[in-house]
Design goal:
Blueprint lengths: L1 E3 L4 E4 L3 H10 L6 E4 L14 H6 L9 E3 L4 E2 L30 E2 L2 E2 L7 H14 L28 H12 L5 E2 L6 H6 L19 H9 L4 E4 L2 E8 L6 E8 L2 E6 L2 E4 L3 H11 L19 E8 L13 E3 L15 E4 L5 H7 L5 H9 L1 E8 L8 E5 L2 E5 L5 H17 L4 E6 L28 E2 L2 E6 L14 H19 L3
Parallel strand pairs: 1-12, 2-3, 2-13, 3-9, 4-19, 13-22
Antiparallel strand pairs: 4-5, 6-7, 8-15, 10-11, 11-12, 14-17, 14-20, 15-16, 16-17, 18-19, 21-22
Helix pairs in contact: 1-6, 1-11, 3-11, 8-9
Bound molecules: flavin-adenine dinucleotide (FAD).
């Protein structure tokens, strides 16, 4: 086995958690090596071709996971420099301050976080600056306190969407401009498509490669090794501290020692790597590694009005949080509603294979495409396990009644707004886009593998900084919260570990 020169810090994964943490650590001057199993995405005929992306799945991994019923499936989990953010919708929204406290839902309660919103607030502002978030304050009725304004104004509504905003407001809702990390002009110069679920090759999407990683690599003390897949974390002989990381690159197994390891492989892969690294799982005295897997309950909702043409290209500029804290009649929270990126005929065809594409083009021309999202609650039986190299993901959806309620509310408001046809389709287990919770933070080492700064309770030189740490899924997109905590953890490491 070849040994690589010893860096101070090894980061596994260059997605939202890993890249942002690297950006926070880089100015310290510590020698940082980022191991990333994927390669950089480069421009090709497929990068803006919806048939290649959605019908042929050319960017999906050559990988199958096994679900709770023993069925194999190909997950929409992306292995590139920048991770899942390469295809993300670029919504950069904060958790609500209430999301940090226990919340009663229709089917159970959330546990809350080990700290409150105020503790993370300054780093939310720094994450918005790093990812050049575009937004405006004062429109979203659930908006938490912001001590700093958005760095840039919101992405403009296209004319067809400005009309939708007006239509939804007329039926009593309060649509707001979705906070977003996208330079629209630059994106559209690369092709007239939306960015949601389309891969970014440097066209203005503020993904983890363009944001955190670029900032980190501007420092000479940070190195990125691509095509380098971490296989195991190795403990010192004391069984307490990590010695380093075993990884595969170019068909060869290598080992790198490090003073600190930051595991940021994503909520499924980080849990799998810990489980694979020691009998019973590394950093797993709590027995909680791999448990509490969450992934929002989400549904695509197409509002069709045959009298109106939706000629928008990107569409994705509106959110609605009127049902975030309750159903409007004193009932429990329902969730968030936001526009999807524009769903065209070829995209619909990927899901409705029997229909001719021309008919789907017609549906698309008259449809406005929404995304309803509800909180998934942490359940220890919803979990990632491994069988050798094989990943098993037994996602036990929770709180489904809440989600049904949200979709019903949206349908009813859309009908009131004059859309005679409303089609719905839930996203399934093949879409673990908002996976989280599998190596969660907590104040009690018996109930959580990580302390509130993402340090493993059982292993002082191991941090897990990706969607795994999220103790709740809330009902908003996760990336900005991952980025904010990654910057907070980086500051903590600089002040505590690197000073020692
Ligand atoms: C289609 C889509 C749309 C989305 N839209 C939004 C949105 O609009 N807003 C939002 O907030 N979130 C969105 N998300 C979710 C968001 O992308 C994720 O929450 C976020 O990327 C999670 O960050 P992470 O660091 O946990 O994992 P990732 O960003 O996925 O990073 C994990 C990294 O680790 C690497 N890796 C994995 N295993 C290994 C290994 N063994 N060795 C080395 N490297 C490894 C991976 O290749 C990857 O680069 C979307 C996701 C998808 C798929």
């Amino acid at each position: 086995m070849t040994e690589t020169a010893t860096p101070d810090i090894v980061i596994i994964g260059s997605g939202m958690g890993g890249a942002t943490c690297a950006a926070g650590l880089a100015p310290s001057g510590a020698e940082i090596l980022i191991l990333e199993r994927g390669e950089r995405l480069t421009r090709s005929a497929a990068t803006r071709d919806p048939r290649a992306i959605f019908q042929r799945g050319v960017f999906r991994p050559q990988e199958t996971w096994i679900d709770g019923a023993g069925r194999a499936f190909n997950p929409g989990n992306y292995y590139y420099v920048g991770g899942n953010t390469k295809l993300f919708g670029a919504v950069l929204i904060r958790y609500r301050s209430e999301d940090f406290r226990p919340i009663e839902h229709a089917d159970g309660a959330t546990p809350g976080w080990p700290f409150d919103y105020a503790a993370l607030e300054p780093w939310y502002g720094r994450a918005e600056a790093l990812y050049q978030a575009r937004g405006t304050l004062g429109q979203d009725p659930t908006e938490p306190l912001h001590s700093s304004p958005y760095p840039l104004p919101p992405v403009p509504d296209e004319p067809a969407i400005a009309a939708v905003r007006h239509r939804m407001a007329r039926v009593g809702l309060r649509p707001f401009s979705l906070p977003m990390g996208i330079d629209v002009e630059k994106w559209l110069a690369g092709g007239k498509t939306t960015w949601d679920s389309f891969p970014d090759v440097g066209d203005g999407k503020m993904d983890a490669e363009a944001g955190g990683l670029a900032a980190a690599l501007a420092h000479p003390n940070v190195r990125l090794k691509t095509g380098a897949r971490a296989e195991r974390l190795i403990l010192e002989s004391d069984g307490e501290r990590l010695k380093g990381v075993e990884y595969r690159v170019g068909g060869e197994t290598r080992f790198v020692t490090a003073k600190l390891v930051i595991l940021s492989a994503g909520a499924v892969n980080s849990a799998a790597l810990l489980l694979r690294s020691a009998e019973g799982g590394l950093a797993n005295r709590s027995g909680m590694v791999g448990r509490h897997f969450m992934n929002h309950n989400t549904t695509a909702v197409l509002a069709i009005d045959p009298r109106v043409v939706n000629d928008s290209v990107y569409q994705k500029t509106l959110g609605i949080n009127d049902y975030y804290f309750g159903d409007g009649r004193g009932g429990p929270p329902l969730g968030n509603i936001q526009l999807l990126g524009r769903v065209t005929g070829p995209i619909l065809k990927a899901n409705v294979k029997w229909a001719p594409e021309w008919s789907l083009d017609w549906v698309s021309r008259h449809a406005v495409d929404w995304y309803a999202m509800s909180e998934d609650l942490p359940n220890p039986e919803s979990r990632v396990t491994i069988d050798g190299a094989q990943i098993h993901l037994d996602w036990k959806r929770s709180n489904w009644r809440t989600h049904v309620g949200l979709v019903a509310k949206l349908r009813e408001r859309l009908r009131a707004a004059g859309y005679p046809f409303v089609l719905t389709r839930p996203f399934d287990r093949r879409t673990p886009s908002h996976q989280c919770g599998t190596v969660r933070i907590g104040a009690d080492p018996r109930a959580a593998p990580l302390d509130p700064y993402c340090r493993a309770w059982d292993c002082p030189n191991l941090f897990v900084v990706d969607a795994s740490f999220l103790p709740t899924s809330a009902a908003v997109n996760p990336s900005l919260s991952i980025a904010a905590q990654a910057l907070r953890v980086a500051d903590h490491i600089v002040n505590v570990d690197l000073k020692g």
